[in-house]
UniProtKB/TrEMBL annotation:
Natural source organism: Acer yangbiense
Protein name: DUF620 domain-containing protein
InterPro entries on file: DUF620
């Protein structure tokens, strides 16, 4: 991945460090020769202004990218992950299904490095690259029109606790920054003219895709084991977790309501690793005309290429598939499918000097 941008104003000047490393593929698509690519990159970096994004052709393109980045690149989970370092709950007075789930979680903890290694992690920084492709919205019974090219990009992810995190994601020239400071979660894109979008503190789904084993274990401690399933010729146990009505109400907003949210984890019976992570959510939203539109989102992530980093087993690659249905009183039954492939380039634990100040939401006049 490209981390530096040469100084084209001064040949002998210091290179510019990119805030978010980008894949070489994304850099190559910026022009036919190195000089043009560098010029286009610099132009893009300087052109994050409202007058540029107000042009209709550019606005449509960026809004499309922002939709993809919000839905598959930086989705949040409407659950509170347990704080602290405890990854154990007693099985006393638990049902057989709940006790089995707790046993499976303990096997997962051992497979990810054990409680000592997991509890030694107090913060992390992750860099990686993504490729996203999607279909257009279409009637659910019609054939889908898949876009021919992938949208490529990179990201930097910081975390200090489950409720203290920040993600910077750049894909095809569109940048999204989102995070949580422990009191609220926030989100902002490079072309967003409205104020920063805020909500209740929630974990980033990407952490549960093999990056944060402790949060994953704490999440599934309250699950139940509902059976077995073969995933890619691998025998897996299935753990299921339903979001409680109280949590759904707390995570809902003035213009939308979370009707249901269910999470599944598929854990390999032999290795103990989580092979697949799924969640399904149904939201009801009010339109400007006071009509009700429903959005049903089903997300399935496959984790691959597990490698140890400082004694912690981290998934260094995988793919996520998202299926979105939109329907309601005046909205046709539309369907869209999105796929993201990701690769982790670097993982660093216990980042020196990282404090809560680094997760403060940006002001509305911040330049990205």
């Amino acid at each position: 991945m490209r981390k530096l941008c040469p100084n084209i104003d001064k040949e002998d000047g210091l290179e510019t460090v990119l805030e978010v490393p980008i894949p070489e593929e994304m850099f190559s698509s910026m022009g036919s020769n190195p000089q043009l690519r560098l010029q286009n990159m610099l132009t893009w970096m300087r052109a994050q202004t409202s007058d540029k994004w107000s042009q209709p052709a550019i606005t449509g393109r960026i809004n499309e990218l922002r939709f993809l980045l919000y839905l598959v690149g930086s989705p949040l989970i409407p659950l509170q992950v347990q704080l602290g370092h405890s990854v154990h709950k007693p099985v006393k007075d638990s049902s057989i299904q709940a006790s089995t789930a707790k046993y499976i979680v303990q096997q997962y903890i051992a497979a990810m490095g054990g409680p000592t290694a997991l509890n030694a992690v107090h913060s992390m920084c992750v860099t990686g690259q993504v490729k996203i492709k999607a279909t257009e919205f279409h009637q659910s019974d019609q054939s889908k029109n898949v876009k021919s090219s992938d949208e490529a990009g990179g990201f930097v992810l910081w975390q200090k606790d489950p409720d203290l995190w920040c993600l910077e994601l750049v894909v095809s020239g569109c940048k999204v920054v989102c995070g949580s400071n422990g009191n609220l979660s926030w989100r902002l894109s490079s072309n967003q003219l409205s104020p920063v979008t805020t909500g209740p503190p929630r974990p980033l789904r990407r952490f549960l895709q093999g990056l944060d084993p402790r949060s994953t274990a704490n999440l599934f401690l309250d699950a139940t084991c509902i059976g077995e399933k073969i995933i890619g010729n691998i025998d897996c146990f299935i753990l299921k977790l339903e979001t409680s009505p109280a949590i759904r109400e707390a995570q809902s907003g003035p213009n939308y309501e979370i009707i249901h949210h269910t999470i599944w984890g598929y854990f390999c019976q032999r290795s103990g690793l989580m092979i697949q992570f799924e969640d399904s959510r149904l939201l009801s939203m009010k339109t400007k005309d006071d009509n009700e539109v429903f959005w049903e989102t089903s997300t399935e992530s496959i984790m691959e290429d597990y490698k140890y980093v400082d004694g912690v087993n981290i998934a260094h690659g995988g793919r996520t598939r998202v299926t979105v249905f939109r329907y309601g009183e005046r909205s046709a039954n539309h369907k869209r499918e999105i796929e993201e492939r990701w690769k982790i380039e670097e993982v660093d634990f216990n980042v020196w000097g990282l404090s809560a100040v680094h997760f403060t939401p940006p002001t509305t006049d911040v330049k990205m």
